Each structure stands twice: as C-alpha cells, then as structure tokens.
Amino acid sequence: MLLDTPICDFGWKAPDFTLKNPNGDAFTMSEHLGEKGLLIMFICNHCPYVKAIASRLSKDTQQLMAEGINVLAVMSNDYQTVDADSPANMLRFAEQHGFSFPYLVDEDQHVGKQYGAVCTPDFFGFNHLGELQYRGRLDDARLQDDSNRVPELVNAMQLIAAIGKGPKQQTASMGCSIKWR
Fold first, then answer.
1. N or C end of the chain: which has fewer CB within 10 A?
2. What phi and psi, each to the nearest 5 degrees, are found at residue 63?
C-alpha cells in the first residue's frame, strides 16, 4: 500500500534506541547525534521506491557524512514475512548500493513504532539537540528522471547543520507501508 509521511512535527524529541546491524554490531542513536545533526531513515530492501532511489540515497548520504552530518538507517519490516528484507539480504542490498551508513535491524519493530514511521523511505532529520526538523522526501525526482533534481533532503540537512532548524516548506515522502506484525 502506498502511503505518505505526516507533516513534520517540529521540535519532537527523538527517542533514544540501540539496534544492531546484520553483523551484530550495536549502534546507539544518542551516540550518533552529532554537532551537525542526525538523519534517521526507515528503509528496506524490497520496496520499489527504495530501490528506485538507492543510488541517489547512497550518494546524498555520503555527501552529508562528509559534511559531518551523521546517518543511520533502520529496517523495521517484519522480515519473517518478507524474506527479501532479512538481515542477510540487508547486507547484500547495502553492498550493492554502496551504503556507507549503519543499516540496522529493528527486530521487534519498537523503533519504527516509537518514531511513527509509516513507509519506506521515511526520513527524519534531527538537529544537534535531537529535535525533529525535517520529515520530507529525498528529492523532487521521485521515480522519474533525476538529472535535474532538487536534493531536498541534502538541502534540509545542510540547513539544519548550519542553523539548527529545517525548512518550513517540506514535501512528504511516499513509499510502501511498513510491514508490521
């Protein structure tokens, strides 16, 4: 089912969490909340929307990380039902697309529920205080030709890094619904 993300709830405080990547390494959100902010993305392997933007997502997040903005990705889908989203397939998908950010398994789906994630991809841009400042889309290209795209996520995270506040105008991300148990 195709869903849109809700409007940004400016100032909403990010709940802390610790999740593991498919290799068993633990990552704690609060330890990644850097001076220039943190992007938390809810993505998965099988979603056609995530597949369509995966190479752009990889490039954009590499740029953000090079600028000192931290990035974490969370996979909250029930991979017992959707095998394509299993931890082994997460490793393959991340390698295939050159993801350089931690890609974490939300085994019991509690993080996705705490954050109110609704679809993949779902982007949450936080300032250095852990306050939500962006809940929009990757860019304006969507599933179309991306040659003249506006990189809305990059622009928003750069603004958050510079002044601690995100853009007032944001366009919702859209994608497949998270597969809940």
1. N
2. -65, -45
